[in-house]
Amino acid sequence: MNNITPTRKLIVQIPCFNEEHTLAQTIADIPQTIEGISEIEILVIDDGSSDRTVEIAKGLNVNHIIRHTKNQGLARAFCTGLDACLKLGADIIVNTDGDNQYAGADIPKLLQPILQGTADIVVGDRQTDKIKDFSSLKKTLQKLGSLAVRQLSGTDLPDAVSGFRAISREAALRLNIVSSFSYTVEMIIQAGKKNMAVAHVPVAVNPATRESHLFKGLPNFIGQQLSTMIRMYSMYSPLKVFFTIGVMLCFIGVLPIIRFLFFYFAGDGGEHIQSLVLGGVFLIIGFVTFMIGLLADLISFNPWIQLPSATVNEVLVLKRTSWGVR
């Protein structure tokens, strides 16, 4: 504990969409004092709620309220909060849900690895095997999804989709969430590919108060998460992705060419010229795909990574300010 920096500002951000019945308890569970933290502020991001969420937040005297005039999705609300927290001078940002799913009393546990300088991002492990509200199917999907994220990101997280997480200021400045569905998976893959230190701690959860806003049917949920994984992995490992696709296309192209050669040497090549043409088309497409991956890989090694970390952060702050982020 001696290596904990004594003066840090923490902002707890709470993305909300129609959370009038649970927001008060969510805020009440947030600790008012935490060792190693000098200031604790609460930011509510209202994502176009049609109920009394904003009125409830005002009545609770939270420090900051930001409103989306129209529902933009959880990821957009998360990003709005992240930008606001940075502008408000947060040293550490904790994200929790407005449905009181996560136990606010565990916030100090989330902060410890960051305060001790051993992690940039800390994710709360809900230990889903112990959650009675989760069906066997949901637990299985969570395990498979987290396994896939671990493989893609190079991190070691047992609960990759948990939204209860702490983020250092430096890590927040380097994140760039592009999805409108959910930030959880995309954030971890980005963190892994950018060599951030990602840790996890066990956290408690409260009984479910409502159905998930994100889970709108199993096929939709799985499709959205798979799309996010593929998109993120393609962004940060384009050469691997396009090289694999290119090799597959070339392999498909070789098969009809072998067929043509077989008939050609048998003296009947003229009747199977279409196999040669088809194979040639697939080989060309495969080669072009590989070149696209090579170009994307070169583009990914942009000048930003050559700058010292502090310089990159300062430039990003200036950019956020010039873009008019609120």
Report on the structure:
With 326 residues, the protein is an alpha/beta fold. The protein contains eleven helices and seven strands. The protein has helices at 23-28, 53-59, 74-87, 107-115, 136-153, 169-174, 184-193, 218-236, 238-265, 273-300, 309-322, and strands spanning 9-16, 39-47, 64-68, 92-95, 121-125, 165-168, 198-202. The chain has a seven-stranded mixed beta sheet with strand order 3-2-1-4-6-5-7, sandwiched between helices. Strand 1 (9-16), helix 1 (23-28) and strand 2 (39-47) form a beta-alpha-beta unit. The radius of gyration is 24 Å and the shape is elongated. The two termini are 36 Å apart. 36% of the residues are buried. Residues 303-326 have low confidence and may be disordered.
